[in-house]
UniProtKB/TrEMBL annotation:
This is Multifunctional fusion protein. Residues 229-335 form the SecDF P1 head subdomain domain. It comes from Marinobacter iranensis. Belongs to the SecD/SecF family. SecF subfamily. Belongs to the SecD/SecF family. SecD subfamily. Pfam families: Sec_GG, SecD_1st, SecD_SecF_C, SecDF_P1_head. The chain crosses the membrane at residues 353-373, 380-401, 407-427, 448-474, 480-503, 539-557, 659-677, 684-705, 711-731, 763-785, 791-813. The lineage of its organism: Bacteria, Pseudomonadati, Pseudomonadota, Gammaproteobacteria, Pseudomonadales. The keyword Thylakoid does not apply. Coiled coil: none annotated. The keyword Translocase does not apply. Its main location: membrane. Forms a complex with SecD. Part of the essential Sec protein translocation apparatus which comprises SecA, SecYEG and auxiliary proteins SecDF-YajC and YidC. InterPro entries: SecD, SecD/SecF_arch_bac, SecD/SecF_bac, SecD/SecF_CS, SecD_1st, SecD_SecF_C, SecD_SecF_C_bact, SecDF_P1_head. It is a multi-pass membrane protein. The gene is secD. Residues 155-213 form the Protein translocase subunit SecDF P1 domain.
Length: 840
């Protein structure tokens, strides 16, 4: 109480700074005119699902990259052996190895020695490949360290090339980040159709100049390439006359004689010198310009070309010439990039998502506030003030981090509102318990906060474990959800423990020695005081829970989960096609070879969801499905629109499946370890078994209700794990407290008393979280149905298991522990101190 003023200053400063950090998000353009730019940039940006745009996940084709590395090493070794006079055969690529036959066995050791010298890469001397001898052959295998180094370098260079290409297009604020070991994530706000960008980024643009071979049989290595139109082929010298990296600038222009679009290029100094020498020595020969394995043009050199410039012509359209110039300016990709995942949201759909998120969020918050004020009166109003501050601080921290707010992020904020109330309810109930013992207001406040603090900390840490794992294994919007929940849990700790306590202490100032009265629901309070014999139904509860879980597992097997493209791979396109019917759309797609398309009516007339299975074949084949589908639909319905596109390749979907299983297992293991440390092994095991029962029932709900199981559903599962453990920790914390205070009491009586005394908190917390999510579950639409509906179901299941299942399992595990002669709890620091005092 003495430090009330100083704490008010410190807490007030933290709150003001947090709210000031969030303020730029609310200012209009006119209001922000006089503020500095660095402050105005401190805002939360909207995700693509809220403002519309496209998201492309590009993956580098590392197989092609390593194949090129092996070929380069083979050519380098061949040159070295030739210079040393060692006779060798043609290099063979056998899997990941290079095998070079040495014709004379007595030269094999010398060849191996030369190969080992080549294996060392200057300047750091790292080893590129291992050298072995096998039956007269040199066997070269790329080292794992070198493979990782090559892959990392290729992705980093690809990142820079992608950035330069997008900058050249004039695209507004694209976000380009590395994802995983071989992925590049490109997010483009406002781009509703990324087909042109996809083509631009997927083009390797590896350019080189080759002389057209004069005659076969001259002893010069040659190879054959098609022309750009695929109508003819050229026999070219394999040796590169000049690499395309020498081009420093390229611009689209028009040939003054033919008026056809051409590309004028300029070379760097070394390139200009080399090009001049080449053309001087080869007048009358054809020089082919090769781009990505095709001959664009092969003009005959008529005179020396000096000055370091030239022209590329090839019957281009204006757009093709412009794109080629752009690609040459930006540079070639070191490895081909394939679209592994594509998601597109139209601007109208994004604005609808914002309106839905704001409406359901405000309605859920209003229902929570009304419940708290109606339940606790002015003390509930204090909790609501803390809740409002908490939401402001969440936005302040998100703004400070420059985070991106997505639709799952809005869901996370709404869930945070519901879960943040839990701490306030726990505090109010603890204070009310102390007040009923006749303690004055100041003491009830101190004791209530002191006893609630440990429980709040334990429950929040267990939830943070699940959320942190969600951040580690998730991607995109799911990570945004995890960040929002994590920040919300930390800020709610501050507002509940510090801000709410400060306001409560200010409220009782001058009346600290008077009894404290906190309203509630009288019949529920009486029920908690009198106690209920919940453990009488322990066998029935466990049996019913087990039967439901077995039934849920059966539903998981048949009919099974309705997996989204996140896990199955493939394409889902939302089509808005005017007056078209399902049959008309199906016929159109079949006429264009899309026989496997599954069509589902969606919302209003003329709106459909079209699903295509994952395409087999070359990397990036799934991406071509999107273009084919759009082309087919627009051929029959020219005014058709595509508000949403979700395309996931097989490699990405397989990664999501593995990551999901890993996340759930790690979440369970992490919380088991934490509860083992904080409580005892049988407490941790009881909580884990109960969570397993809750999760199986929730998965059964997915199967029974037909709710799509996607990455948002994974977020719901992990959030439910955290929420359910939160519930169990509150009950277990009270059991531990009662065990320490009265260890001689019968276990069944102690468990019943613990469940009854926390019943009010369990019910109230569940109701507030349910109310916070209810509007989203009813009106949130398909975008958040995979989150909101399982959460609502899970809250009911988690609450009932906290009352009837967890303590029953703990009872049987405790009995087993007692038969082994072990104590129910390890000695506390206070117990150890008392024993030492007795000994002394």
């Amino acid at each position: 109480m003495k430090s009330l003023r100083s704490r008010a200053v410190v807490y007030g400063l933290v709150i003001v700074l947090g709210l000031l950090s969030a303020l730029p998000n609310l200012l209009s353009h006119n209001q922000s005119g006089k503020l500095p730019d660095w402050y105005l940039q401190n805002t939360v940006s909207l995700g693509l699902d809220l403002q519309g745009g496209s998201h492309l996940l590009l993956q580098a084709d590392l197989d092609d990259l390593f194949s090129g590395e092996r070929q380069a090493i083979a050519e380098e070794l061949a040159r070295t052996l030739r210079e040393a006079g060692i006779h060798y055969g043609r290099a063979l690529m056998v899997g990941d190895r290079i095998e070079v036959p040495v014709r004379q066995s007595d030269q094999l050791s010398e060849a191996a020695s030369l190969a080992r010298k080549l294996a060392r890469e200057p300047p750091d001397g790292s080893r590129r490949f291992d050298v072995d001898q096998n039956g007269g052959r040199l066997v070269l295998t790329l080292t794992e360290a070198w493979r990782e180094n090559v892959a990392r370098d290729a992705v980093e260079r690809s990142l820079e090339v992608v950035r330069r290409r997008l900058d050249e297009t004039g695209l507004v604020d694209p976000s380009i980040t590395r994802q995983g070991s071989d992925g590049i994530l490109v997010q483009m706000p406002g781009v509703a159709d990324p087909s042109e960008i996809r083509k631009l980024l997927g083009t390797t643009a590896k350019m080189s100049f080759h002389w057209v071979a004069r005659e076969m049989g001259e002893g010069v290595a040659v190879f054959s390439l098609p022309d750009a139109n695929g109508e003819g082929r050229y026999q070219l010298e394999k040796r590169v006359a000049m690499p395309g990296e020498r081009i420093r600038d390229a611009q689209m222009a028009f040939n003054p004689d033919t008026s056809e679009p051409v590309v004028n290029f300029k070379l760097d100094n070394e390139g200009a010198r080399l090009f001049g020498d080449m053309t001087r020595d080869n007048i009358g020969r054809a020089l082919a310009i090769v781009l990505d394995g095709k001959v664009i043009t092969a003009p005959v050199i008529r005179s020396v070309i000096g000055g370091g410039s030239g022209e590329i012509s090839g019957a281009f359209t204006t757009k093709e010439a412009s794109n080629l110039a752009l690609l040459l300016r930006a540079g070639a990709l070191p490895a081909p990039l394939h679209v592994a995942e594509e998601r597109t949201v139209g601007p109208d759909l994004g604005s609808d998502a914002i309106a839905m998120g704001l409406t359901t969020g405000l309605l859920g918050a209003a229902m929570v506030i009304a419940f708290m004020v109606g339940l606790y009166g002015r003390w509930g109003l204090i909790a609501c003030v803390g809740l409002t501050v908490n939401v402001g601080l969440v936005f302040g921290v998100l703004s400070l981090l420059g985070a991106t707010l997505t639709l799952p992020g809005i869901a996370g904020i709404i869930l945070t509102i519901g879960m943040a109330v839990d701490a306030n309810i726990l505090i109010n109930e603890r204070i009310w318990e102390e007040s009923r013992k006749g303690k004055p207001a100041w003491m009830a406040l101190r004791e209530g906060f002191g006893k609630a603090y440990t429980t709040i900390l334990d429950s929040n840490v267990t939830t943070l474990i699940a959320v942190s794992l969600l951040f580690m294994v998730g991607s995109g919007p799911v990570r945004g959800f995890a960040v929002t929940i994590g920040i919300g849990l930390l800020t709610s700790l501050f507002t509940a423990i510090a801000v709410t306590r400060l306001i409560m202490e200010w409220r009782i100032r001058g009346r600290a020695r008077e009894p404290l009265v906190i309203s509630g629901i009288a019949w529920l309070d009486r029920l908690s005081e009198r106690g209920v014999n919940f453990m009488r139904a322990r066998m029935t509860g466990l049996l019913v829970s087990a039967v439901l879980s077995v039934a849920a597992i059966g539903l998981f097997v048949q009919p099974g989960l309705k997996y989204g493209v996140d896990f199955t791979g493939g394409t889902v396109v939302e089509v808005q096609a005017g007056t078209a019917t399902v049959e008309q759309l199906r016929t159109t797609l079949q006429d264009h070879g899309l026989d496997e398309a599954a069509i589902q009516e969606f919302g209003a007339d003329g709106r459909f969801l079209v699903r295509l299975p994952v395409a087999q074949g070359e990397p990036g084949a799934t991406a071509d499905q999107v273009a084919s589908l759009k082309s087919a639909v627009t051929s029959a319905q020219p005014d058709a629109e595509f508000p949403r596109v979700d395309m996931v390749g097989p490699k990405v979907s397989g990664g999501f499946s593995d990551a999901t299983i890993l996340a759930v297992l790690l979440a369970g293991a992490g919380m088991l370890a934490y509860l083992w440390v904080r409580f005892e092994s049988h407490f941790a095991l009881a909580a884990t078994l109960t969570i397993a029962l809750d999760i199986t029932k929730t998965i059964g709900f997915f199967a029974l209700a037909g709710v799509e199981f996607n990455l948002t559903a994974v977020a719901a599962l992990l959030a439910l794990i955290g929420y359910s453990v939160n519930d169990k920790v509150v009950v277990f914390d009270r059991i531990r407290e009662n065990l320490r205070r009265t260890p001689e009491r019968p276990m069944l009586e102690l468990l019943n008393d613990s469940i009854s005394s926390t019943l009010t908190r369990t019910v109230f917390t569940s109701v507030t979280t349910f109310l916070a999510l209810l509007p989203m579950g009813i009106a949130g639409g398909a975008a958040v149905a995979s989150f909101a509906l399982p959460m609502l179901f899970g809250i009911v299941i988690g609450t009932s298991s906290s009352v009837f299942i967890a303590s029953s399992i703990l009872y049987y595990l405790g009995q087993r522990r007692a038969r082994k002669g072990l104590a129910q709890l390890r000695p506390s620091a206070e117990d150890i101190r008392k024993e030492l005092e007795q000994i002394a």
